[in-house]
Every structure is written in structure tokens, then in C-alpha cells.
């Protein structure tokens, strides 16, 4: 089993599932829950719907003054920040929307730029060594159409020095359709298996 390694200990795994779909109980969520059902019972799971935690539009203040003009997060933004930093494993579950992540997911990722610049949070340093996973449902059988989604998440992991666990993909457009994708369900059964070794980015080495 792997976790976030510090100088003195290895933190037990805890998973944060961020659901980026525009509807509840969608195919992406069903696929994520199938994979999560195979996690050991002692592994903490937290599930948050981004649609329930609306964020303000991201203001680009990086070049305003000294570049650290971002205030301490409050409200939904603070909830998401604390949940993100509280997990060893971050699972972004977003359906494929126009070949990339959903709008709610993209806005959440945009706020990472702010969190890296809020004094005292040390977001980038604290995310280093954690693991980022993706789960996505798409309408067609050609998973290569989701390459931009996978690339976005993979590059985010690389930039922060996180491990990259990959993207679990399944086919589903109509409600519940992904449950008929036998190959996706088979992959889900071992997706979070502790024996799988996520890719470690150069920044995390």
C-alpha cells in the first residue's frame, strides 16, 4: 500500500472523489463508485459533488502587485481546499465534455493557481507525492477522444509533483449505460489496487 511519504511516516490512504458531472448518479459517478467499492474497508472515502459547491469565477491576479494578492479561501472554496489537502489520493471524476473535463472540474483546477499563491498554504509543496486519478464516461467507444482530458489531468499531476494513477474510462451516455460496459467494470475492479504502481513524475522524484 502506498501513501504520502514524509520524513517520519507514511500516511494511511484516504480518497477524495470529486464529481464533476452536471447530473447526479451519472455514468462517471457509477463507474467511480464501482472502482471505490473494491477499496479496503479501512480506507477513508469522501465524496463531493462540485455542482453542490459552486465556486466564483477564477480571477487572474498573478501579475497584480507582488503576485500574492489572493486572499484566504472561504466558503465552498475553503471546503474544497481543505478536502483536497486532506486526501492522499485525489480522484477527479468528470465525464468527457467537448473532449475535455467538465466546466465545474476546470474551474476547480483553475483555483489551484490561486491556492499556490495564498500565503501560508504551501499548496504545491503539500500536494507533492499524493496521487491523482481520473474517471470518465464518454459516449463513444473510441477512448482516444478523451486524450485531452487525460492529458489535462496528467499534466496537472506532473506540475505539482504528484503521482499519476491514470484514467478509468467507460462508455455511457444514457443514464446507467456504463454498467453495461463489461470491460470498464472489469478494469474498475482493480483500478485502485494497491499493487498497481502509479507513475511518479520527474518533479516528485
From TrEMBL:
Q: Which InterPro entries match?
A: Flavoprotein-like_sf (IPR029039), FMN_Rdtase-like_dom (IPR005025), ISF_SsuE-like (IPR051796)
Q: Which domain of life is it from?
A: Bacteria
TM region(s), chain numbering:
none
Q: Which molecular-function annotation in GO is an example for this chain?
A: oxidoreductase activity
Keywords, ordered alphabetically: Flavoprotein, FMN
Key word Flavoprotein present in the record?
Answer: yes
Q: Which SUPFAM superfamilies match?
A: Flavoproteins
| Domain NADPH-dependent FMN reductase-like per the UniProt entry, residue ranges | 16-144
Q: What is this protein called?
A: Flavodoxin
Amino acid at each position: 500500500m502506498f501513501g504520502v511519504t514524509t520524513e517520519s511516516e507514511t500516511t494511511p490512504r484516504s480518497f477524495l472523489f470529486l464529481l464533476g458531472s452536471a447530473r447526479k448518479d451519472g455514468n462517471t459517478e457509477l463507474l467511480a463508485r464501482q472502482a471505490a467499492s473494491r477499496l479496503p474497508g479501512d480506507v477513508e472515502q469522501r465524496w463531493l459533488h462540485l455542482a453542490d459547491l459552486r465556486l466564483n469565477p477564477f480571477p487572474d491576479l498573478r501579475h497584480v502587485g507582488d503576485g500574492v494578492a489572493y486572499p484566504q479561501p472561504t466558503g465552498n472554496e475553503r471546503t474544497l481546499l481543505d478536502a483536497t489537502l486532506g486526501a492522499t489520493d485525489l480522484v477527479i471524476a468528470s465525464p468527457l465534455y467537448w473532449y475535455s473535463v467538465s466546466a465545474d472540474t476546470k474551474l476547480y483546477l483553475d483555483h489551484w493557481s490561486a491556492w499556490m499563491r495564498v500565503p501560508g498554504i504551501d499548496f504545491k509543496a503539500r500536494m507533492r507525492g499524493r496521487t491523482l486519478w481520473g474517471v470518465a464516461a464518454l459516449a463513444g467507444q473510441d477512448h482516444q477522444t478523451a486524450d485531452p482530458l487525460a492529458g489535462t489531468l496528467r499534466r496537472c499531476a506532473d506540475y505539482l509533483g504528484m503521482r499519476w494513477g491514470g484514467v478509468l474510462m467507460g462508455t455511457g451516455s444514457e443514464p446507467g449505460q456504463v454498467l453495461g460496459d463489461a470491460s470498464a467494470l472489469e478494469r474498475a475492479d482493480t483500478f485502485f489496487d494497491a499493487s498497481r504502481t502509479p507513475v511518479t513524475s520527474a518533479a516528485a522524484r
